[in-house]
């Protein structure tokens, strides 16, 4: 059996399971964000009175943090009251950040768990060997009512990564390259495991970006086998005991793919789909009105750090603007301590509250008709960040910072190589 | 659950994402009556005025990809979509639609067999389906028993409601 299958089997009380089987799984943590008052309505429509396990439910107010309309304020108020009435202590209010980062920062994510959230990018938690998947409001209400959710055992594919990244190339470039090759529906309903020599050296931040974006190839869940990097990261966060499961040697993957990352240059997903991917060098010079650094994909301290390196002592080009959204309060504090916030603010960056912000076109950096944005986020669908006639290029945080510096799409590897030479 | 659906087809392409089915700027709306007004606004702003209850949405591959927003399924249910047929569905949208009692059916090759405004007839239970306008049969995959059971009960809410009541008694 695969590790994912073992996790699902354990959660459903089965010894052995098979692909395609539907299981009723016990959920270790269910997360609701502030887009989903329907979760509460559905719970009440089901006749729910008291939630099944209040200690296994968390509410995170991230998409509208803080509220910028009366309706948003009403939705958040409803959630705060619900948490209070139901004895749900894990309420993270508008000071906290994007749910995926908040759960990790607060030690709620650990290997082998089943984590279900009302957010499609819950695949992120495969970076820790957790089974994480996104659902809608009513599915989440079923968990609140019963503690369980039906899940189909997915086919599992393995993507092996070998080689060493070039300067200015990151996990984001690798996953964009892979999605560009395979397509936005390649992994529909499937589990996607990443393995190979490349990711052994990768930080948790990079692993999270990699797993996060599997949603954009249709995946149900992602998985990286926990290793020493994982354990070191979790050691001062997770207090709960967990055990790590491993895939059996004789497990047959539905498909096995191999990518050498060494020749991959910086990549961009071009409007208006995430699988429309080109080498960044083919787009150099495209004017950019807004550079956006943030989200559960590309808003961590390492991401803000590389932007600070590129923009340190320089100015954001007057033809563009740079919006920076730390993924969480902890990320914000880390970036402050490292001096990166000061460098970026002096360069002309606009910092907004940790949260989802303009990634999904709700607030804090919306685009006007005809505007072009380069973003370290995850989606470039029509109208995703604002007007339906605006457009979004997706790239690495370094590519975002490089464009902020020049006002147009620019190869970050050239800038980083020069900075590297200055240093030595 | 109504078993036989007959209605006019509204046709969309591949990878129709939930931002187009229900744009992000309206996510704060929570009442079905308000959500309904913006169904498909990002892909076809004129659809709500033309769509009649029982009409059928036809998509290409990966229909409903992107955000987990249940608003997308709520909006299509609220305008009265009799069924949604597509080459394939993104998984969260598929679950959301089933949970709300909206039949979602995989129909390989449908993109080439149905034009805008064709009249389609579908038996949800058996998967028999026909394009009445072109008089061609459509290949529709039958639903799993698990999904069909949820649809027959009008969605997962009535099902869980009964479970909870049984536990309490």
- Tally of contiguous helical segments of chain A: 15
- What is the CA-CA span between the terminal residues of chain A? 49 Å
How many domains in all of chain B?
1
Please identify, by name, the CATH architecture of chain B.
Alpha-Beta Barrel
Strand content of chain A: 15-25%
Into which percent range does the helicity of residues of chain A fall? 25-40%
How would you characterize the overall build of this protein?
Chain A has helices spanning 3-12, 37-45, 70-86, 99-105, 137-146, 171-182, 197-200, 204-212, 228-234, 295-298, 301-311, 329-337, 340-347, 397-406, 412-423, and strands at 22-26, 29-33, 57-60, 90-92, 114-117, 131-134, 148-152, 156-162, 191-195, 221-224, 255-260, 267-269, 277-279, 290-293, 321-324, 349-351, 372-375, 391-394. Chain A has 424 residues and is an alpha/beta fold. A five-stranded parallel sheet of chain A has the order 4-3-2-5-6. A five-stranded parallel sheet of chain A has the order 16-15-14-17-18. The model of chain B has no long low-confidence stretch (mean pLDDT 96). In chain B, strands 4-3-2-1-5-6-7 form a seven-stranded mixed sheet. The radius of gyration of chain B is 16 Å and the shape is globular. With 169 residues, chain B is of the alpha/beta class. The two termini of chain B are 27 Å apart.
């Amino acid at each position: 059996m695969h590790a994912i299958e073992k996790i699902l089997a354990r959660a459903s009380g089965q010894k052995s399971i098979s692909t395609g089987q539907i299981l009723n799984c016990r959920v270790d943590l269910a997360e609701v964000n502030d887009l989903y008052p329907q979760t509460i309505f559905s719970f009440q429509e089901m006749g729910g009175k008291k939630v099944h396990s209040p200690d296994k439910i968390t509410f995170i107010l991230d998409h509208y943090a803080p509220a910028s309309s009366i309706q948003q304020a009403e939705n958040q108020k409803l959630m705060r009251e619900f948490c209070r009435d139901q004895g749900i202590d894990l309420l993270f209010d508008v000071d906290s950040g994007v749910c995926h980062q908040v759960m990790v920062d607060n030690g709620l994510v650990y290997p082998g768990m089943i984590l279900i959230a009302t957010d499609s990018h819950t695949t992120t938690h495969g970076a820790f060997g957790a089974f994480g998947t996104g659902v809608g409001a009513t599915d989440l209400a079923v968990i609140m009512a019963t503690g369980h959710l039906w899940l189909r055992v997915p086919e599992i594919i393995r993507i092996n990564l070998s080689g060493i990244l070039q300067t200015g190339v990151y996990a984001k470039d690798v996953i964009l390259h892979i999605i560009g090759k395979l397509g936005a529906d390649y992994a529909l309903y499937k589990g996607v495991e990443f393995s190979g020599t490349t990711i052994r050296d990768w930080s948790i931040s990079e692993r999270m970006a990699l797993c996060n974006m599997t949603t954009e190839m249709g995946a149900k869940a992602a998985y990286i086998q926990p290793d020493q990097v994982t354990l070191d990261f979790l050691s001062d966060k997770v207090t709960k005991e967990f055990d790590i499961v491993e895939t059996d040697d004789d497990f047959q993957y539905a498909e096995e793919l191999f990518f050498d990352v060494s020749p991959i240059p910086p990549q961009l997903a071009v409007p208006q789909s995430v699988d429309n991917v080109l080498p960044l060098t083919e787009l150099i010079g495209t004017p950019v009105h807004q550079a956006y650094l943030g989200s559960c994909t590309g808003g961590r301290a390492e991401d803000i750090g590389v932007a600070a390196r590129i923009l340190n002592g320089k100015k954001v080009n007057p033809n563009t603007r740079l919006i920076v959204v730390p993924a969480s309060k902890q990320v914000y504090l880390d970036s402050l301590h490292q001096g990166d916030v000061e460098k970026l603010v002096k360069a002309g960056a606009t910092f907004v509250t940790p949260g989802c912000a303009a990634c999904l076109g709700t607030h804090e950096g919306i685009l006007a008709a005809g505007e072009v944005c380069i973003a370290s986020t995850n989606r470039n669908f029509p109208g995703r960040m604002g007007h339906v006639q605006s457009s979004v290029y997706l790239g690495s945080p370094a590519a975002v910072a490089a464009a902020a510096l020049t006002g147009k799409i620019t190869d970050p590897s050239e800038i980083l190589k020069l900075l590297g030479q200055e240093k030595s | 659950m109504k078993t036989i659906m007959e209605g006019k087809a509204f046709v969309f392409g591949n990878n129709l994402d939930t931002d187009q089915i229900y744009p992000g700027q309206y996510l704060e709306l929570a009442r079905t009556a308000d959500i309904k007004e913006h169904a498909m606004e990002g892909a076809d702003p004129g659809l709500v005025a033309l769509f009649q209850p029982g009409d059928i949405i036809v998509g290409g591959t990966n229909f409903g990809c992107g955000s987990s927003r249940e608003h997308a399924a709520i909006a299509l249910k609220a305008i009265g979509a009799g069924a949604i047929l597509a080459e394939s569905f993104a998984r969260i949208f598929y679950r959301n639609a089933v949970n709300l009692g909206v039949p979602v059916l995989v129909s390989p090759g449908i993109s080439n067999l149905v034009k805008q405004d064709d009249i389609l007839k579908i038996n949800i239970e058996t998967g028999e389906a026909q394009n009445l306008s072109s008089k061609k049969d459509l290949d529709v995959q039958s639903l799993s028993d698990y999904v069909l059971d949820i649809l027959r009960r009008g969605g997962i809410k009535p099902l869980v409601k009964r479970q909870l009541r049984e536990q309490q008694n």
